[in-house]
Amino acid sequence: MTALINAPPSQVRRILHEDLQFIAQTTSEDVWERLRGRRLFITGGTGFVGCWLLEALVWANHKFELGVHIDVLTRRPDAFTLKAPRLANDPSIRLIQGDMNDLASMGGQYDLVVHAATDVVSPSSDPYVAFDAIVNGTSQVLDLASRAGAQRFLYVSSGAVYGRQPTDMPGMAENYCGAPSIDDPRAAYGHGKRVSEWLVRSLARRHGIEPVIARLFALVGPYLPLDARFAASTFISDALAGRPITVTGDRRTVRSYIYCADMAVWLLTLLAKGEAFGAYNVGSDQPITIGELASRVSERFGSGMPVNCLASSSTGSDDEPAERYVPDTQKIRSDLGLQLYTSLDTALARTISWFREEQAL
């Protein structure tokens, strides 16, 4: 990654270069015009989602001469500069040292604020501490947006706010009133995001800010953290290391995956012209079981990496329905004319090519 980010735009590696060109061309012209000359404040800019937003904004800034200025909140500017010097040293970006849970003394003038700190709570996290960090961080970022005179606020939330998906529901729509279980201490992330959505709407109305909420589902693409405990990252990591692709959970579990370049187009469009106070699912509506995903990853590696399903990943019985986590995306399609541009097979192939190139560096 460092070698890629350190290169000037003309030398960006092939996969990222093609993806950024795609984002610039696919995102509608009126989105870029609405961003022209704007000052942005972004949290989570050094993570998976945030890196893609920064890559897209910096690329478009150069291509269309937008005059966008971006302040990126990071706990360790030095670490981000080491990881991504091309982004960190771009004249449109300024790194601000700080934590989203301690923003009371931070000022500045911003037109747009993006709260994209979306790290999923690990199983070892203290549920209360995790919940409090999510909610308090959102509150503080909203207060900063108010002090800064921001006009719009994009909150990157999660499909986890819906809780467990009914097995007879093909996709969860934005008006579905499900919620995470109050009996599950592991649901701190979903509860934190759900309460934060309420805060976003309530405080934004008080402060005169137009909020838009993006509920992210599963993602795949370059920058995917391979040490994350998710199926796609685990399977790709296994294959890259020459290990059998191992399915440890129920292989009947149903997920769907949106490619990160598609995600960037959707998020930028929501930031610029999503309905104020509206919530939109951001994900693929094309379901796939975890067992099928493992096989697809194996096929994309060409040599047919073996797939190993552990005993715990058995098919289960009919009275134990498989878990499902798939969005309904009709709203974002009809309201904003967006679509799923990249098939899962193409998304997996591009992601794998990215990491193979990285291995070769």
Assess the beta-strand content as a share of residues: 5-15%
N→C terminal distance: 9 Å
Let me know the number of strands. 13
Q: For the record, what is the CATH homologous superfamily label?
A: NAD(P)-binding Rossmann-like Domain
Low-confidence spans:
1-11
- Main sheet properties: 7 strands, parallel
> What fraction, in percent, of the residue positions are helical?
40-55%
Number of helices: 13
Pfam families: Epimerase
Cofactor: NAD(+)
Protein name: NAD-dependent epimerase/dehydratase family protein
GO molecular function: NAD+ binding; UDP-glucuronate decarboxylase activity
Q: Can you offer a commentary on this structure?
A:
- A seven-stranded parallel beta sheet has the order 3-2-1-4-5-6-11, with helices on both faces. A two-stranded parallel ribbon has the order 7-10.
- Strand 1 (39-43), helix 4 and strand 2 form a beta-alpha-beta unit.
- It is globular and about 55 Å long.
- Helix 9 runs parallel beside helix 11.
- The longest helix has 21 residues, at 127-147.
- The protein starts with a helix and ends with a helix.
- The chain has helices at residues 2-5, 14-26, 29-35, 48-64, 77-83, 85-88, 127-147, 188-207, 231-240, 260-273, 290-300, 330-336, 344-360; strands at 39-43, 69-74, 93-97, 112-115, 152-158, 210-216, 219-220, 245-247, 254-255, 258-259, 278-282, 288-289, 307-309.
- With 361 residues, the protein is an alpha/beta fold.
- The model is unreliable at 1-11 (pLDDT under 50).
- The protein contains 13 helices and 13 strands.
- It has a single domain (2-220, 258-284, 326-344), classed as Rossmann fold.
- It comes from Trinickia fusca.
- Its cofactor is NAD(+).
- Residues 41-283 form the NAD-dependent epimerase/dehydratase domain.
- Keywords: Decarboxylase, Lyase, NAD.
- One of its GO terms (molecular function) is NAD+ binding.
